[in-house]
Hints:
The protein contains 4 helices and no strands. It has helices spanning 3-30, 37-63, 81-108, 112-135. The mean pLDDT is 97. One fe (ii) ion (FE2) binds at residues 20, 46, 50, 92, 125, 128.
Amino acid sequence: MDQQSFVALLNEDLESEYRSIVQYTQHTATIKGAEYQSIIEELKAHLHQELEHATTLAAQISFLGGVPSVSVPRIPNVPNGADALRLDLDLEAAQLERYRQRVSQAMELGLHDVAEALRPLLQQTQDHVMDLQGALGR
Ligand SMILES: [Fe+2]
Ligand SMILES: [Fe+2]
C-alpha cells in the first residue's frame, strides 16, 4: 500500500465518523423508553468522542498531504429502539475493523506517529462496541 491509498482510506474513515455524528445525534434524541435510558447516556458520550475521532482523522489526513473529505454517507432512517441500536453496533463494529487495519497499515508504512494518533480511536471504538453489545444483551 502506498501513502496515497492510505490517505484515501483515512478519508473513508473520516466520512464514517461524520455518519456516526449524524446518526448518534438522531438516535440520542429519538430513542425512547426507560429500558434505553442508560444506553442513551452512553451514546451521548460516544457522540462527543466521534467528533474527536473526526478531528483527529482530518488532522492526520492534512498532515499526510491530503484534503479531508466533507462528504457524509447516506444514513438509513431507523430512529427507534433496538433497531437503531443494532444500526449503531453495526457501524461501530465496522469502524473497529477499519481501525485495526489502519493502525497496522500505518506501521507497515513506517508512519509510527500516525499509528500512535490512531490508537485512541481503536480503543474507544472497542469501548463503543462493548457498550452497544451490553445494551443489546450480546
Ligand atoms: Fe468514532
Ligand atoms: Fe464510536
